[in-house]
Amino acid sequence: MNAPQLLLTRGPGDYHGGPLPAYRRPNIPEIRPTAISRRPSVAIVIPAYNEERIIGRCLESCIAQTSAPDEIIVVNNKSTDDTLAVVRRYQRHHRQLNIRLLEQNEHQGLIPTRNHGFDHACSDVIGRIDADTFIATDWVETIRRRFTDPTVDAATGPVFYHDMPLRRLAFWGDHRIRSYLRRHSTDQRFLLGANMAIRGSAWRAVRQLAHRDLEDQLHEDIDLALTLFKNDFEIAYEPAMIAGISGRRLESPVRDFYRYITRYTRTTKAHGVKSWTALLTMVILLLVYLTFRPVRFFYDVENNRFTLSKLRAKLGRTATTPPFGRRDAATAGHTAEQRVADSVGTGIWAGPIVLSKPTYLGSLP
């Protein structure tokens, strides 16, 4: 299959809170289902922990869909910032949409939070993204079309880094790698937690079989994919199911990133799978990290350009910023809420948004 063409359109709201630019895919053949006539309902589940600075842009991309989702479910996991305030403001400004805000306070971690959202979804298909994911405007429409095929139980698609340079090249490489692994892997299938969907009936069938991972040692998306695969559920790769994810994990220290990539082998080991694809994926992730980590310190993600000012600012913050957790939380919360108050629904963000460190360290893609 030819790689889908990634065409970015730029405008005043480009990557600043407006809808993710449209994508046109002339080389992707339309799937023509034969057995199901009713288009399935779709929910979008978004686990969130301390995401006040980015979740608004994620919600904007969910709201701007060509086919509106039946549910948008944000699951808050013990956030200590203004994540709740941001989501509630979107609820008030978009009453025509079913934006639900749930709280999962029993356990700190991605899997319990994801499960809570999946369990409360009422739609036929449950989409899952991260709070720093921006989905293409036809993401929900693509899922509806794909899941009219009754043989498909879950699906995932290609991604690009929306806050890194060379987005087209990264998208092309990601698509080629995922297509190759889908064709040649015989012992497992793949899902990407930041860009996936699962049929509600399939989730309920494997709900008690997937690992709870309260120790936070596994890749939750790979664990779910292996559980589905071992129980004869079909996972499809859909090239038109496109999402932009954040490259902020590349700013993690080397030790933390190594712990992140070795989650893959711990996950396959937990399922009794010895997979060459796990090792290949770890090598690819490590190469991406070593190559592009320095870029993060010279790239202005707000203005999409290289600059030394970000590096100077980072060095300045390192020298002057007090220890983590001692900044004025009330002032920070007011700033985040004011930004949303000034910009929600307009597609334009008031002031720069500085991406924070990875939410679930070791659990986000």
UniProtKB/TrEMBL annotation:
UniProt keyword Transmembrane, yes or no: yes
Keywords recorded for this protein, A-Z: Membrane, Transmembrane, Transmembrane helix
One family name in Pfam for this protein: Glycos_transf_2
Region (Disordered) location: 319-338
Protein name: Glycosyltransferase 2-like domain-containing protein
Species: Mycobacterium gastri
Domain called Glycosyltransferase 2-like: residue spans: 44-207
InterPro entries reported for this sequence: Glyco_trans_2-like (IPR001173), Glycosyltransf_2 (IPR050834), Nucleotide-diphossugar_trans (IPR029044)
Top-rank taxon, per record: Bacteria
Parts of the chain that traverse the membrane: 275-292
